[in-house]
Amino acid sequence: MEQWDGSAWTALPAANIDVYVTAKRSNVFASVGRYWELWIVDAQGNVSDGGEDTFSLASIIPGKKRKDTTRGTYTITGDAAFYPTTVAPGALGFTQGGAGPAGGLFSTLTDPSGAIAASGLVATGQPVHCQVHVAWDSSAPDRYSTVTMT
Q1: Average pLDDT of 116-120?
Q2: pTM: predicted TM-score of the whole model, two decimal places
């Protein structure tokens, strides 16, 4: 992300992006580069959080007076695998809200692969890969983001 300083575009480090966004109920978590989520699926296939993974674009264009405030891109990449088990999420290192970007889902900032292997769990089926790419430029006339998902 870059910020217009009045004369030039200047790159913002991740920690500065977290501070820059001040809109109510907006959290960017730009300094979180990697995290893991755990979703519980019952025998009927129902997913614990309703079956939808969501993310939001926080308000990174504060106010309506200045148009040229920020521009940038980011990409979210994820892989999902199914592990049949009755092992509790906590035994695998997951807690609700453990990673800020995951909201209230069971999540962790620490790679759980060791705990998963130690529990004897083996993934079934093919993993699912998803990628979301976001680009925006607040100096553009429409001020909207472009989001693509594959």
Answers
A1: 97
A2: 0.79
